[in-house]
Amino acid sequence: MITASQQHGAAQEPQAGHEGGFDLAEMLGHHILNSREYELPFVGYVPLPHWPELAVGGLTIDVSPTKHVILLLLAALITAGLAILAGQRVARAEAGRAPSGLANAIEAVVVYFRDDLCKGYIGHGSQRFVPLVLTMFFFILTMNLLGLVPWGGSATGNIVVTATLALVTFVVVEVSGLLTLGPKGYLKTIFHVPQGVTGAMKYVVLAVMTPVEFMGKFLKPFALAIRLFANMTAGHVLIFSVLGFIFLFGNLPYVRWLIAAGSYGLVSAILLLEVLIALIQAYVFAMLTAAFVGLIRDPH
User: Fold this and answer.
1) By mean pLDDT, which of 188-197, 219-228, 288-297 is the weakest?
2) How would you label 69-94 residue by residue, b for 16+ Cβ within 10 Å and e otherwise?
3) Alpha-carbon distance 39 to 67, whole Å?
4) Other C-beta atoms within 10 Å of 241: how many?
5) Structure confidence at residue 40 (pLDDT)
6) Which of 115, 124, 225, 236 is the most buried (most CB within 10 A)?
């Protein structure tokens, strides 16, 4: 995604306002939007490499890395590293003793998703979907939390990222439904007539419900993408907007320290809430993924 920050050239600091003051919008843009530069501690904004575009048919595809691509790769490495570390500790644990520390916490989450959430929502055959649901949860949680650390950012604040995750869910749901129900049973999830409806009313219900059922297949992943994107973006906008009070009103005599203290206190409380929201949004995405799989595999 190309952002307005690219138009100002590579590796630029947030600019001042029109009158030489602080520009809150510029600060928000550098943190939330995607860009061709990444902020490093004690270095500033560093331009990312630009690679030649790929020509596919009549289209040209820009495959150059951006800030959110870097954050996606970082989140993937952290998620994989934690999973491997936890697996090694569990494998080395003594017989009859549960692993301790981080491995114990990860194992508890895995057992909960496997035995309670996936089995409860999907039912028979849920084991094959456990890796997907767990990957969604840990990967999204890691991306959400990266947005709360210094010099970080949340890739889930990019609608393209959340839409891609939702597309993965959509494909898994529809393919699993087709394989479980067969072509005839799958078509009934679109051309649906409730039991007991007969005669001419059957065709009236078909005419009304078929577009609704068909659109519902796309609205579910759309809601997944928008919910995650909107919640993560809104939290960061709120945090930086409150911090901006320090610069917008910090020049007022006698009240600058009061404004600074109030802003930092409120932002600290919001950050604690954001940690909870990051966890909840990751859980909701994973939970709804399991629920959608269960709904299409067992329409009753």
Assistant:
1) 188-197
2) bebbebbeebbeeeeeebeebeeeee
3) 9
4) 15
5) 85
6) 225
